[in-house]
UniProtKB/TrEMBL annotation:
Leader sequence segment: none
Domain TonB-dependent receptor plug, chain residue ranges per copy: 31-136
UniProt membrane topology term: Multi-pass membrane protein
Species this protein is from: Sphingosinicella xenopeptidilytica
Protein name: TonB-dependent receptor plug domain-containing protein
Span of domain TonB-dependent receptor-like beta-barrel: 246-595
Amino acid sequence: MIAVFLLSAAAIVDDGTLVVSAAREPVAYSETGGALTVIDGATIEAVALPQLVDLLRLSPGVSVARSGPTGAQTQVRIRGAEANHTLVFVDGIAANDPATSGEFRWETLPSDGIARAEVLRGPQSALWGSEAIGGVVSVTTAESTDGTRIFGSAEAGSFGTVHAAGGAGVGSDKGGIIVQSSWYDTKGIDSFGGGIKERDGYESLMLSAKASVRPIENGELGLVVRHTNSLSEFDGYNSFYMRDDTLDATRIRSTALRGFGRVETLDGRWRHELFGSYVTTDNINRDGDTFLNRTDAEVFETGYQTGIDFGSEAFRHRVTGAIEYRTQRFVADDAEYFGGTNQRVSRDRTSFVLDYGLSAGGLALGASVRRDENDAFKDATTWRASGRYTLENGFTVHASAGKGVTDPTFTEMFGFFPGSFVGNPSLTPERSIGWDVGAGYRTGAFSADVTWFQADLENEIIGTYDSATFMSGVANATGKSKRKGIEASFDAKPLGWLTLGGSYTWLDTKEAQVAGTARVREARRPRHSGSLLATADFDVASVTFAANYVGNRRDTDFDSFPARIVTLKDYVLATLSGRVKLGGDFELTGRIENLFDATYEDAYGYQTQGISAFGGIRVKWGG
């Protein structure tokens, strides 16, 4: 089955929209040459799915794989890159977890209180460093506004689900503060379907606060604090290393802080910022009441950034420079191997970044270079170049190219599991060179864009197996993994009350070639995918239909010996959501997930939820 679902109405970004991920400083979309999707707060609220990752499914070039029901491990791949090749920022804090293979724990990120999410596709390491091979996702939560406001929501529904969120903010031209919280609890389903048939539930709590103060007209001090705590039950492996209906559960705790001070001089043309962040994560695994193991990580980062604008109205230049220092600490402890996997390791990195932008009429050019000096492996230099030209008739051409890197994870370098796995401290960072070129068109009520992209991945870190010792490990591959594809998206507003949007992605990914064999298609990456979004808004009521098509994918059945390749069937995952005003500041909300009751798997052998319904109430008061 191949659907002709051609991304959300947020796919095509307004030329004047400021984006924060495409340069070291916010720039207008018309001054960027990269492929970018912005999912705004209105879209997030209209679709009303509780986890942000389910809205990312609507973005071109993005594939999502969840290993079971809501709360299970969830991976995002951009343009066919690996799951740890997407760098995620939440309110400016780099949130990838060194304690879980450098991936971001998407299952811990609720959509509540998110004002926008930017998805920047293609290598971005020259701007943001390691893990940005496939792209960058930058999430911004709600800001304080003038006056006072209170907001909240509560809902209940299928699988014993209860969900509540809310917050309050107060602000003025001198500063403000906003606090938010989100709580989600579901009994879930049995993701494996074995003999016990116990349900795998999920519970999460998120607390956050953002505060800022402007002691002088051209200066600002700010602080962001965010805490998440979740418990995810899942079916793991029995003593024979076979998947089974177990009582495994993972407790994930994360606390993040970011502080900054900004000042502008020369009438705002020269900007300075000092910043620092600290993130700590704990991942604790149990089988019932029995402690198995845990991995903890700490990341501290500080730096200085300065940017200056100069030139004339016809030729405007922007130069931004930054220096960053980052240190990571990783701790692993276990009981099941009597401490055999324990480790205490750390590594540091100092980075120097230079970013340049030129705007001349309809032409915008950009170039970036970054030097990462690592104490644990070879230093890296990355680069990026982009351009966009906008014609007066509404047509646009754009292109970008860059080099990205992803550092080896702590487990890949130093991990050890007795009798099964040993790390490789000699690993070198993965690196990728990719490019894209596209064309778009915009008129008052219609926008469209088509982009061709291609990337080659070198030094890919792959699994190895020694048949003499029965030990597995990792090594850098000698060949190249190749990714290429097409991204197409549109949005339209044919009527004042109707908004339409859609996307389609064709993706061809091939693993590094082994001598004497043909290239193999990479796992969990659909060749065809797409989405459709439609919202009918009549002020007193609105309804939104969102659908995501995922084509056939390749996966591996590790329960077989030797492991065999399987095909995951295609599916359509649709959501119908709506709201009705009750009067005053209250709204009645409703949502049906998996509208067509699709039976599907994102990861082989892990069942997912069928059709489900949810209803609730929402309140908004103030500015």
